[in-house]
Specification:
The complex is a heterodimer. By secondary structure, chain A is α/β, with parallel strands linked by helices. Chain A has five helices and seven strands; from the N terminus they run H-E-E-E-E-E-H-E-H-H-H-E. Chain A has helices at about 15-30, 80-90, 130-155, 165-170, 175-195; strands at about 30, 35-40, 60-65, 70, 75, 120-125, 200. In chain A, helix 4 packs across helix 5 (about 175-195). Chain A is elongated. Chain B is an alpha/beta fold. Chain B has a domain at about 60-155: 2-Layer Sandwich (Nucleotidyltransferase, domain 5), CATH 3.30.420. Chain B has four helices and nine strands; from the N terminus they run H-E-E-E-E-H-E-E-H-E-H-E-E. A five-stranded mixed β-sheet of chain B has the order 6-5-4-7-8, covered by helices on one side. In chain B, strands 2-9 form a two-stranded parallel ribbon. In chain B, helix 4 links the parallel strand 7 (about 115-120) and strand 8 (about 145-150). Classes of the chains: A alpha/beta, B alpha/beta. Strand 2 of chain A pairs antiparallel with strand 8 (about 145-150) of chain B, so a sheet runs across the interface.
Chain lengths: ~210, ~160
Amino acid sequence: MAKRSAPEVNAGSMADIAFLLLIFFLVTTTIETDSGLNRKLPPIEDQVDPPIIRQKNIFTVLVSKDDQLLVEEELADIQNLRSLAIKFLDNGGGVGEEACDYCQGERDESSSDNPDKAIISLKNDRETSYKVYIAVQNELVAAYNDLRNREFLRLYPNVGLNYVDAQKKYADPRTNLDDSVDLKVKLSVVKKMYPQKLSEAESGSK
Amino acid sequence: MSKFKKKSGGESPAINTASLPDIVFMLLFFFMVATVMRDSTLMVVNKLPAADQIQKLDKKDRVMYIYAGKPSSRYEKKYGSSARIQLNDKFATVGEVGAFILAERASKRQELQNVLTTALKVDSDTKMGLVQDIKQELRKVQALKINYTTRVGDYTQNLK
């Protein structure tokens, strides 16, 4: 009863095969970049009765064809854009019904009444380069996010997250249902305090 | 003294490579899971601008892609060097964007048709004129949710 062991399969080339497959996948695939700035375009139909918006509630940003920045008709540097936008949005100059009790701005009468009324109007030229335009958009979105972060931390210090992180957690499918329902309410409260009213107009100056 | 003598031969034993396939397979599976096959070959230069206030586009089946940029070097002779739009696998004019969006929308499931996002993958050296034309076309077909796809990075990288 001599036990005959089965001959061992030579697995020496297994590594080669696996390497071949690995290199094939490395070459043919790309790690996709699938994140960016979400925006909503305005619907095309002309409003019959456009709402009257007071000039002081509009914050105009124009990116010229030489990629220069005009903020409220004045030449500005992109480094200052975020703080200028925050100053405008958080001004809260309104009185009575239009007052803004959570704003921490200067309450300047010649600037916006409250964040709900404040509109940022972004205009560009056809010759503006895309990367500068994205940089400007990024800074304007950052202004909204900064303000929302501040309010989220003030209202819900127990959550231990700021607005942006809370939004990420809400979008994460691993978050359990109770948490995400809870977060949704909190997020929409803060969103309503600083609604993103950022208008991308059609081409301005020709 | 023979007690301390090595048995025979001073050669070191061969390294056991039996676990090498396992390691490589592990790497292989990692790459298979973490990456996505490109569904259309890029015919344009596509160096995306950087931004840091970004949101993720999580659901792949709800996204339509529009590429734009200069034709890449191998197409430069045929199509020139001014920025163009790429839809699926071919170059397109601005006028074709609307039809493309309608066709894409029709190919998606009914319940997704209202929640589609258009991802604009535009090269950073493109002029806004082309982007504006695309946006105008998108508005015409009521594809209002857009996403400027960017790299993760500080905005100052765009200013160089």
